[in-house]
Amino acid sequence: MSTPKPAVLALADGSVYHGRAFGAEAVIAGECVFNTSMTGYQEILTDPSYFGQIVTMTAVQIGNYGVNAEDTESAGPKASGFVVRELSPVVSNWRSHQSLGDYLARHGVPGISEVDTRAITKKLRVTGAMKCCLATLPITDDEAVERARSWRDMAGSDYVKDTTCAAPYLWSADDPANHNPAYLPVGTTMNVPVAPAKRFRVAAFDYGAKHTIFRKLVRHGFEVQVFPATATAAEVRAYAPDGVFLSNGPGDPAALSYIHRTVTALLPDFPMFGICLGHQMLTHALGGTTFKLKFGHRGGNQPVKNLETGKVSITAQNHGFATDPASLEKTGAVVTEVNLNDGTVEGLRHRELPVFSVQYHPEAAPGPNDADPLFNDFYRMIEKRKAGKI
Amino acid sequence: MPKRTDLQSILIIGAGPIVIGQACEFDYSGTQACKALREEGYRVILVNSNPATIMTDPEFADVTYIEPLTLEILEKIIIVERPSALLPTLGGQTALNLSMELHKAGILARYGVEMIGAKPDAINKGEDRELFKQCMLRIGLDVAKSRTVKTMDGAREAAEFLGAFPLIIRPSFTLGGSGGGIAYNREEFERICANGLDLSPVHEVLVEECLLGWKEYEMEVMRDHKDQCVVICSIENFDPMGVHTGDSITVAPAMTLTDKEYQVMRDASFAVIREIGVETGGSNIQFSVDPVTGRMVVIEMNPRVSRSSALASKATGFPIAKIAAKLAVGYTLDELRNDITRLTPASFEPTIDYVVTKIPRFTFEKFPGADQTLTSAMKSVGEAMAIGRTFKESMQKCLRSLETGARGFGGGGRLGGDELPDAQTIRSKLATPNAERIFYLRYAFLAGYTVEQIFDLTKIDPWFLHQLREIYELEVELKQFSLSGGASAPSPRSEANATGASRPQLPIPTDLFRRAKQFGFSDAQLAHILQSDLAAVRVERKARGLHTTYRLVDTCAAEFEAFTPYYYSSYGDENEVLPSDRRKIMILGGGPNRIGQGIEFDYCCVHASFALREIGFETVMVNSNPETVSTDYDTSDRLYFEPLTLEDVLEIYQQEKCEGVIVQFGGQTPLNLASALKANGVNIIGTSPESIEAAEDRKLFAAILTQTGLRQPDNRTALSEGEAVTFAQQVGYPVLLRPSFVLGGRGMFIVYSEEELKSVVRQVFDVMPGKPVLIDKFLEDAIELDVDCLSDGETSVIGGMLEHIEFAGVHSGDAAMVMPPHTLGAEMLATVRTATYALAKALKVVGLMNVQFAIKDGDLYVLEVNPRASRTVPFVAKAIGVPLAKLAAKVMTGLKLKDLGFTREQTPRHWCVKEAVFPFVRFPGATITLSPEMRSTGEVMGLDDDLGIAFAKAQAAAKPGLPVKGNVFLSVKDSDKPRAVELARELAELGFVLYSTSGTARVLVENGIKVSQLQKIGEGRPTAVDLIKNGQIAMVINTPGGMIPRRDENAIRSAAYAHSVCIMTTITGAFAALNGIKALRSKRVGVRPIQQYRGNVTVV
Questions:
Q1: Helices marked H in B421-481 — which ranges?
Q2: Which end of chain B is more exposed for a tag (fewer CB within 10 A), N or C?
Q3: What is the rounded distance in angstroms from the CA atom of residue A35 to the CA atom of residue A62?
Q4: Sequence-distant (≥ 6) Cβ neighbours of residue B459 within 8 angstroms
Q5: Which ranges in chain A are annotated with CATH 3.50.30.20?
Q6: Which pairing describes strands A130-135 and A6-11: parallel, antiparallel, or unpaired?
Q7: What is the side-by-side order of every strand in the sheet holding B167-171?
Q8: Is residue B176's pLDDT more than 60?
Q9: What is the CATH topology of the domain spanning A6-150?
Q10: What residues in B contact A122, CB-CB < 8 Å?
Q11: Nearest to residue B682, comparing CAs of B672, B690, B695, B673?
């Protein structure tokens, strides 16, 4: 066994954690956040919403099942760095084709293991999400802290430009690159969807979209035309979609006024569904505002109550910002869902327009599928619109 | 939606006596449910026959019936109490089955009792194999493929349909699946099917695809009536399919599933609970996954709270039973609070940032002759759970929590040394699942096996094997070092080694030391590996700044603040022990259940905690048994889920700055630690460790007896087999032979002749090699008496006297007992009282003391004194309505009995009968007899104003109950024959038809009693076994002919157990049964809650 290489994680408050390096050799800075999911590190790493962030997993045994070809949410890891308590030296799963360490190394993402992730999590819970530096190359503790402190804050920055697609394209379920069907074990037909007879055309803004969102839209009867974040309302209209979808994405939602304007322009004319950053874009487009949460919601066990049905879903979440409910008062929007842990807004809908959005991730990946019916709700909404009922 | 207001009273059925497969987890769940429902203002009616439970304490329900769990008794209780609802899902399979019987008999409908939680239809679908399979296929889930066939041709077609060998063949309706097997080829298949078709009473076998070696998972799911579902915990079995999940090492959370696979399993779990229709509450659903293709099949579901849900509750901090009870009365998950975080709701899924390991504990040594292979039928009697930050840490902590002498994965101790078993043993211990396989994995590494080779033999997931390999490799690395370098003071052992292998000179680097601790290596393991001793390792560890840190079990991986101090130890950067300056007392629990140490001791520990909290102390509970009430997070102020070893306990004591420790309540486990704790400056409160030792030490004890003027049977201590023979002759046969320093009567024998002695003496010496063997004159046909006494050092008060039904020679844990004594006169009882008080005084008892007396020919002998809580404490407390253990705990803090208002002995005016319950059915081939070696797993209590009825109730509760008519098979040893005549005559007069074999039959005929003679086994047919199998025998009375029962006798007893036929194996037991039968035929069996027995005592 080769001697493990050291690694350092330094937080802006001056605390330094020494551990073992894995993944790429690099020194990077970013926002340190924690995720409480017990499974799904591959999806988390490849979720573009984590762009600019260094993710700490609270679950302790990471890498056990390696990395496979199917469970990716974008072309490669998007998080800047990865912090774990223990990295598995081996991989055990029938779908795995690579170890987590090799995968991160190949994609230039550094990782640190053998650090007290619970202590880090508690610190973030108390202090809030913090700037940090992760180094798998030699660096002094002071330098690392300095690198953390001098990192340009996420607030006010446009991260979407780094994660959106370059040009519009049709999400093809047949394209091998996209052909990642929902995982189902052999012999099980439980989750096989009934394909609707008619397919609707949806213009899907990619702010750094998780691929599972597109997969789910296809599964639920949509033809998905993907647009970059910078696409204009006119470009979208030219496609003549049946509905518009606003995806998740990274960074500060307030810093994206060009998106807010596009969405505002499209609002009166199209049924619209937004997820995560898409929900925040809708908030801003309607005239509402967002604010930064202390340490965000990142995990797969978040209880969300639908105020209209009274039902609670366990949801997958990954967001550091939230809609200010007071700001929605005169926008025509109502809060439809709240997080039962802290009461923050998790969903909204417009009183008149066929428009709704959720802060959490109904596409799961990773996390529970409880909110999967929302994609169907979007389909039904368009159906009704087409029938002239709304 | 708020709780239902249309329900006023709710009936809860407990799980009855502790048996294999149903242990104290159902006391834990039932206790939670009782508390949860009373909190909501419902009148709770509880029925349970097990007096050693916390739930049957009078304050936990409005009315508590300690009555047999039978249909007849339940109906009587329903008639009296008229409950609005029955909650069937919290008392294990016993309660579920009984609830279904009540439903099927129309009793629930007749009295308007609504089943809440799970309806009969759902229970039926969950329990019926075929219905369940159809449900699964309907919702698109996969199940093991199978065909039921009635002919060989059908079997061949089934094999064709299923495709590939191996195949499992399960004959229908044979007991314990006998006659089935796994066929690896066509020839085997033909043979097993033919045999199975023949053995099955309906000539039917199930041919099923074989999932042996597949990965196994469990999901703990909850649902509320708004159809909101959550997963509380996923569990991955370390042992692949083929081993009962109760006998498997299990790990939480699931370790080798991707999120996609996990979510499919989660979705499937919800689909199952919905399809089966469990409306509210918890269910356990088991899955199996093909490690090659990922194919996932549903194995089974339990539509109720289970052993696994107790484990899941302890593993996550989420109280499944409590929440299940609240959901059953109408609450929804979002209306309930998460007690641990307080600010967040119960409608969430716990996420954990540690790893939990559970390892079962077995007691095969008690059942020689039983097959030790682990199969689909559960054989373990208890389990330990450990929490660590990593799998490696939790596995090592769990191995030492087992208290089997293993220290962990290597590092010396039992099955952890560097000796290498022979290649064949290693191979077979890997290939066949067994209780020791985990240790043989290390031996395999030691022998040079690769992970791949071990996987091929065991099918244990390579991830687990690699983790263990890492522990092993670290042990190898550690061996290059010594504790503090060659220059430091060498330990005695290394001096001894000086001439042999050279001792490593380099001191262990601190980083490596820390890593070892993070890998879960205990100081004891390190002492072995570094060739030092425990104390030196501790000193050096602390000098290097390696302090144990405690982390919280908080349900949420630190996302929210936790308010409940539920801790586990680790070696991390942070210590989360919340400071407190209140006075603290530590209570040491009993660790994993085993025969001889179970729920009774947990009951005492829980009482100690309750009592000390009442008087203002903060209580610190330490235990490693996930089944218990003591490890519920609200039983004590602080809960440490930790192994009960010196290192682990001492760290907590010191960090918590406890002012004292109670060791006398948790059975032998804490007592074994007492002296070492004391030597390390721990304040043991109550009776001193010296007194405890004095009672164990022959010489010291003899002195105490002399001082108190009491006598014990003549005895000697033999150091060799030769001495044993000589001494036995000196004291005179029969003698009781036993090894010293053992528990639960392990290796004890009564021998009647030198020949018998010679046949077993080797065995007795082998139990504790190098230790002497004790030889006592055995008092034949003596009456035995158990006395529980409470003392504060000044005042001593007897809690209860229990007279054994069997003559001396049966372990008190196995004996049936009557309280108050039913044959002894006032004069003898006065003598017993005086003797007991004298012993309490001489031993300076502060707390509880148990004395075992024997009375022969009017003389009183002291057999044994245990200055600690005994197994009978809960029984006695229930009998007299006085919480003895609570009083004892208070007394240990310095309070006096006179201040506590308990200064006079009270004897019940009603009869209380204790009966033991045995696991013989689980161990085919083991000898069935009552002996000095304890083998029962649990106990029941029968209460009534009439002794006969009380005995009959105890028998009914212990199952199968006394018959009132039918055929009796009677076969007794020669010395019992005179009394057997009397017994037979009375049975015949009651209308029983007698059957017997030649010897006994001849005596009966000579005395003019009508009897049908049966053939002895091997001498012709039909035999008693044939009649038992045909359901023609209502009761078997068979007293053993010698020390080791003859084969044919054992066959009769095995058959009786297997077919639930009432069996008496002592003549005194048979007479008690006769009295019970007479009572059943002449008197009404009534029911009465223990609250109504309160005060029904005579003050002595």
A1: 423-431, 437-446, 451-458, 462-478
A2: N
A3: 12
A4: B212, B213, B214, B240, B291
A5: 6-150
A6: antiparallel
A7: B146-149, B205-209, B167-171, B181-183
A8: no
A9: Glucose Oxidase; domain 1 (3.50.30)
A10: 558, 574
A11: B673
Cβ-nearest to B264 among A94, A191, A365: A191
Beta bridge partners of residue B229, listed in sequence order: B223
Q: Is A276 a catalytic residue?
A: yes
Chain A: closest CA distance from residue B336 (Å): 11
Q: Which two tokens stand for residue B869?
A: 């809580």
| Tokens representing residue B308 in the block | 């696994």
The neighbouring-strand residues paired with B569 are B550
pTM (predicted TM-score): 0.96
- Measured distance CA(B4)–CA(B331) in Å, rounded: 8
Show residues of chain A in contact with B290, CB under 8 Å: 94
pLDDT in tens, B213-235: 999 999 999 999 999 999 999 99
Buried b (16+ CB within 10 A) or exposed e, B673-706: bbebbbeeebebbbbbbbbbebbbeeeebeebbe
Give the full edge-to-edge strand order of the sheet including B250-252.
B296-302, B281-289, B215-223, B229-237, B250-252, B355-361, B382-388
Nearest beta carbon to residue B389 from set A60, A189, A301: A60
Q: For residue B344, what is the nearest residue in chain A, using CA coordinates?
A: A341
| Model pLDDT, residue B1096 | 94
pLDDT tens-place string over residues B116-162: 999 999 999 998 888 999 999 999 999 999 999 999 999 999 999 99
Where in chain A is CATH 3.40.50.880? 160-386
Residue in the block written with tokens 């988390």: A44
Query: Which residues of A are less than 8 Å from B262 in CB distance?
Result: 38-39
Query: Do residues B251 and B215 make contact, with C-beta atoms less than 8 angstroms apart?
Result: no
Q: A160-386, what's its fold? A: Rossmann fold (3.40.50)
- For residue A10, the SS3 value is strand
A181: left (phi over 0), alpha (psi -120 to 50) or beta: beta
Q: Residue A260: what residue type?
A: H
Query: Residues with Cβ < 8 Å from A134, sequence gap 6 or more?
Result: A7, A8, A9, A26, A27, A28, A29, A30, A54, A80, A81, A83, A110, A111, A112
> Is A133 a residue of the active site?
no
Please state, in angstroms and rounded to a whole number, the distance separating the CA atoms of residues B791 and B667. 18
- B353 CB neighbours in chain A (<8 A) are 36, 58-60, 85, 117-118, 121
Q: Is any Cβ of chain A less than 8 angstroms from the Cβ of B461?
A: yes
The residue of chain A nearest to residue B347, with distances taken between CA atoms, is: A303
Please report which helix (H) or strand (E) contains residue B1017, including its range: none
Lookup result for tokens 């994995």: B441
| B846-856/B859-866 β-pairing | antiparallel
> Are B264 and A188 within 8 A, CB to CB?
yes
Kindly state the greatest CA–CA separation across chain B. Answer: 88
User: What gap in Å lies between CA B540 and CA B698, rounded to an integer?
Assistant: 38
A31 is catalytic: no
Sequence-distant (6+) residues with CB within 8 A of B500 are none
Could you give the CA distance from residue B351 to residue B343 in angstroms, rounded to a whole number?
16
Question: ipTM score of the complex?
Answer: 0.97
Left (φ > 0), alpha (ψ -120 to 50) or beta: where does A104 sit? alpha
